[in-house]
Amino acid sequence: MTNGKQKLYRDLKQRILTLELEPGADLDETQLSKEYGISRTPLRDVFRDLAGEGYLSLESNRGASVSPLSHTTLRDFFLAAPMIYAATARLAARNATADQIVELTDSASRFDEAIEAASTTQLAIHNNRFHQLIGLMADNAFLLPSHNRLLIDHARISQTFYRAEDPTLKKPLADAGRQHADMIEAIRQRDEDRSEQLVYEHWALSREFIQRSLTPASLNIGL
């Protein structure tokens, strides 16, 4: 990729994961071509790459748009995520290299720093990267595409519940950080059963976050 294409590819991914580009939003080819200094052909190459990974949807009469987050998407996400995350974690414990474990540890530290900085965006980005690395550790060509596709929507959904400035989330976020550390240790010890168990515990915490964000708070109405 040329520099302009690489930057567009990276930037669009981050803008989608952080909801700067909202689900379903149309992409303006003219504006993006001008902004990144590339012609329509390489621009559309990037769109096709991102569509293949699940970030974008391409329609002949509409062009490129951000992949939607629908009720069906959420249902399918809740059904598939724990199974695929667990299988990926088992293989990560089996196949991870020493260098990958070092990188995973660094990623976990960045997540912890985002908690301290109370940065919602950075929490989502570094949590996404942590789990991407576990997918790479698994080293399985069949699981990786599904795992990464789940992480796209997981990151986007997380923008609705990772409210780092919310004092009620301080303990659950700290728990998430500790679970990351436990997962790293289980992978380092090649403990597949423990890795799988920790993923289910981590998923339960994520599900609690998500359900809290999707459930309206009780209304305080005086009668």
From TrEMBL:
Annotated PROSITE patterns: HTH_GNTR
InterPro entries given in the database record: GntR_C, TF_FadR/GntR_C, Tscrpt_reg_HTH_GntR, WH-like_DNA-bd_sf, WH_DNA-bd_sf
Domain of life of the native organism: Bacteria
Keyword Transcription regulation carried by entry: yes
Residues in HTH gntR-type domain copies: 2-69
Entry annotated with the keyword Transmembrane helix: no
UniProt name for this protein: GntR family transcriptional regulator
Entry keywords, A to Z: DNA-binding, Transcription, Transcription regulation
GO molecular function per UniProt: DNA binding; DNA-binding transcription factor activity
Pfam families named among the record's database cross-references: FCD, GntR
UniProt source species: Hoeflea prorocentri
